[in-house]
Amino acid sequence: MKSNHPVCTRLRSQLRGLVPVALAAILSVSGLAAAEATTTLTLADAEHRISKNPSLAAYRQKILALRHQAIAAAQLPDPHLSLGAVDLPTNNFSMNQQQMSMLSVGLSQTFPPFGQLTLRGRQLRMEARAASASKAERAAELRWLLQQSWIQALVGHDEMRILVRQEQLARLTEQAATAAYRAGRADEADVLRSRLARVALENEKDQIRSEQTVALARITELLGLSAPPQLVWRWPHAAPPPALSLLIARIPGQPTLQAAAANEGAARVSVQVAHRSLLPSITVSTSYSGPRILDKGLSYRL
C-alpha cells in the first residue's frame, strides 16, 4: 500500500532519480573491467606500462625525499627564540608591583662542529644516488621478469597448438587400434598403448596449461592489472647482442655496481660524520630585558 505523505512522495521521487545514475555507474564500472580484461598487449606495450609498477614509484619517492633531506641537512639548525619573565608576581601578574619585575626576550643559534653539516648533506646525496641506481636495477629486473614470462606464455601457446594436433592424431590411432582389435587383427596391448599415449598427451596439455596460467598471472602482477591481458601471439623481434668487448666495457656502469659504490661512499662519509660528532658544538645567544634595560649582553656557551 502506497503512502501519500509528502515526505514519502519526495523520497520516492529522489529514489527514482538515483536509479538511472546507479545503473550508469554500474555499467561504466563493468565496462571498464571488461575493457581491462580484454586488453590486447604486445611486448613493447607491456614494457612501456611496466614503468608504472608500484615498486618503482616507491623508489622515486625515496629518491625525492633523500634529495630534500640532503638540502635541509646542510643548513644550520633553526634559531631558538625564548620569552621569559623575571621577578613577576604570580598573584596579580602586575609589572608595577615590584620594581625588579621585567620581561626578557632571547635569541640563540647553535653551530654544529665545523664541516659536519657539509658531510651530512654529502652522505644523503650519496644515498639518493644509491637509491637511483637501485631503482634502475629494479626496473631492469622487472623488465627481465616480464620478458621471461612473456616468452614462457608464447612457448606454452605454441606447444598447446602442437599438442592439440597430436591429441587428434592419437585419438584417431586409438580408434583404429580399437577397430583392428575388434576385427581380430590387433592385440589388446595395442589398444592400451594407443590409449596411454593419448592420456599422456592430455597430462602434458594440463602441465603446459598450468605453466601458461602462471606466466599470465605473473604478467598481470607486473603490469598491475586486475585481470590477465590478451597477449598478441607473435614472437617479439630481438636485436642481436653487442660484441663481447662492448659488454665488458659496460660492466662498470651496471646499476648494481653503481648502487654498491654509492652505498660504500655513503658509509665512509657517515664515519666522518660520527668523528665530527665527537667535537663540541657552539651556541651563541643574546637576550634583552625590559622595561628597563637591566640585562643586555652577548654570551657564548660550549
UniProtKB/TrEMBL annotation:
Residues 1-24 form the signal peptide. GO terms for molecular function: efflux transmembrane transporter activity. InterPro entries: MdtP/NodT-like. The keyword Transcription does not apply. Keywords: Signal. This is Heavy metal RND transporter. It comes from Acidithiobacillus caldus. The lineage of its organism: Bacteria, Pseudomonadati, Pseudomonadota, Acidithiobacillia, Acidithiobacillales.
